[in-house]
Write a structure and sequence with these properties.
Strand content: under 5%
Number of helices: 18
Oligomer: single chain
CATH class: Mainly Alpha
Number of strands: 0
Order of helices and strands: HHHHHHHHHHHHHHHHHH
Radius of gyration: 21 Å
Largest sheet: none
Shape: globular
Length: 406
Amino acid sequence: MEWFKVLGVAPEKYFLLEIVILLGAASLGGWAAKKIQMPAVLGQIVAGILVGPSVFGWIQGDSELVHIMSEIGVIFLMFLAGLETDLQELRKSGKSSSMIALGGVVVPLILGTVIPYLFFKHHLPQGTPHQQFLYATYIGTILTATSVSISVSVLRDMHLLGSKQGISILGAAIIDDVIGILLLAIIIGIVNPSANTHIGWLLLKMGVFFVGVVVIGYIISNLTMRFARGNVWGERIVTFAILLCFLFAFLSEVFQVAAITGAYAAGVICGTTPYRSKINKRIQVLAYSLFTPIFFISIGLKAEISADMLQYIGYGFVIVLLAIAGKIIGCGLVAHWSGFSYKHSLQIGAGMIARAEVALIVATQGLNSQVITNATFTSIVLLVVISTLVTPPLLKYLFKNEEKTI
């Protein structure tokens, strides 16, 4: 953007060109992906890699504008997923989703801890065997993270988000997030005893949040139904839905639950009102025209591909295989034990393999705290790149003959 200075454009106006580049790249990437019969999200992620630091360097991955707009994008994406969720089906899948989430945490945790500890100790920070085992456990914790936003987008485009498998993926991902946050707090507390982590307090706050969601959701749903008869909402219902979405996203962060969980809960609540269709149509236009494409572009921007990847390529691919196999085996096997067919179990496992911003954030914290080495951090970046690129075409292939639900 140096040439902007020659044109005499004020630095505070650079964001206008950033938006042009981001949306232009997202549109071209999505169009190119559709041309080869792949989900648009795949093209948008690749476009992010191209315009980001890895290739052309037009947009930086740490841009504040990109961060804010991508956060709004994923919040809207999960809100829309909540709107389209059948509450009855979600209740029915509660037990199986919990078990799938548990399997998707336990298996990657074990694989990601044991294999590095036994075979790649030279890539762990120096220390006693006990310390190195704890460092390996941190790697396993990173591998438990799931980025369901990619799977949600793909299934939504294929009109399969409302399928039994789609609802199980959504439910398991939300529970997976909660377990992952608790697990991370425990591991940080053990590895770094000076860290301010109180597991009991964290559990209490999460419990209060989920109870509050149920109570507030019941009140809002009933009030909206009552006022619907008088037609007093009009277009204001869309504004109210957006307010509720961002309020719940904020409150979920206050109670240390991921913002996307709050947004999803707000969507489920709005989906119980008579205005579900109107809210869905209006927010779809806003989200998919501006914010959601930038979110998927941002994944490509953050996944910086560097020369270090070649240096640690063998170790990196082991981490990638452990992460992918952990979700497919952990979630897939439990899904089968819960009554799903082998094909549907594989679909659920595949829907949980993508890693993105959460894995990068936890890995960055570990690198800064010297809990993981540069080799492991580089391997996590490789995992983010490969898992985000593999998930869309894999889901498209596995779900290609499924009956559409929405």
